[in-house]
Amino acid sequence: MAKENSTGEDYDFYLRVINVPEFWLGLATTGFAMSAVTFVSNAILLFIIYKDPRQSFRTAPSFLIANLSASELLLGIVVVFPVALRDVLRYLQLPLSHAGLLKAIIYIIVSTTLFVSRFTLIAMSLTCYIAINNPMFYRTTITEKRIKILIASIWIVALPISLLPATNLAEKTYTLIYLHTHVSLPAIVLTLAYINVFRAFSRRKQDARVSFKNSRIDKRHTLARERNMAITIITILVLFFITCVPLYTTLHLLYLCKTCQKSVTFHKIDVVASRLLFISSSIDPFIYAWRVPKYRQALRDCFNILKHSLTSRFRSNLNVGLSFSRKSTTNINSSSSCLSAVK
């Protein structure tokens, strides 16, 4: 988080505090890699959901995953890539034109996409809990139409919050608002939701043991599925805290600790912590989708469809080429005969 100064619009606080080119080069390299992975992974995920070869993604969880992926794709293109370019300029010790405008744009996009992704995670955790705890209520209440309305509502609420930098609020004020709407509240809700999800899993596990005590195969399959879901849930929660807590801590210290404000090491940690937010956008598709068998199957189906399409097109072009070659040979033979007659 850059601290503006009266030296002008192009003033870059961190470029002057951290005069270590290798530090910025490392961040730029990492940023470009994360941007590429974020774009490719989320684009593939959105493609297979849109293509839907087996018509199996017209469900509430799939719409929520698509919304999460869309917000993170936007983050990877509009934020992570420009931030990496800015780190390249810092590595080259070059000033950035319109740095204040770029900072405002990054603030708005980061705030919007992170708000959408965090509250989409909350919606996913709550629908997961309802599906496990009360399957009948889930089927009748969590409908496609209601999920679409929920997704639209999340975006509508995110936009006004993201425009806080354009108001007369002090930077400290809207930064603290962001921290509590984007980290504190989601952390509390997600933790409570997943505690209840684990409790619901425990009840289902006991029921499975009773129901399948005479069927070892069914019991093994059910327990394996629950273990896979448990690992996924733990990974989600751990990744959330790993990527959010460091920046949450450094931003509070930035305003509360005067000694920290003068420390170059602290500002390095602050910059690295801000980049950790982008890691989840590149990893989420693998956690939320690739671990689910139907997404892996859809990816294979899309690959096979693409492979078949390319093969058919290649064969068609090859046949056209062979046909053209035969016609050319025939024309050449005819011309040779004519020339022979003339002679």
Structure explained in plain terms:
The structure is a single chain. The protein is mainly alpha-helical. 85% of the residues lie in helices and 0% in strands. It is built from twelve helices and no strands. The radius of gyration is 27 Å and the shape is globular.
Name the features:
globular; mainly alpha; 85% helix; 12 helices; 343 residues; disordered N terminus
Q: Could you outline the blueprint of secondary structure elements for this entry?
A:
Layout: H1 13-17, H2 21-51, H3 60-91, H4 99-133, H5 135-141, H6 144-162, H7 171-211, H8 216-256, H9 258-261, H10 264-276, H11 279-290, H12 293-342
Helix pairs in contact: 2-3, 2-11, 2-12, 3-4, 3-6, 3-11, 4-5, 4-6, 4-7, 7-8, 8-10, 8-11
Shape summary: globular
**Annotation, overall tally of beta strands:** 0
Poorly predicted regions: 1-8, 332-343
Mean pLDDT: 78
What characterizes the major β-sheet?
none
| Elements, N to C (H/E) | HHHHHHHHHHHH
- Count of helix runs: 12
Q: What is the percent of helical residues?
A: over 70%
Derived structural class: mainly alpha
Percent in strands = under 5%
Q: How far do the termini sit from each other?
A: 88 Å
Alpha-carbon Rg, integer = 27 Å
Quick summary:
85% of the residues lie in helices and 0% in strands.
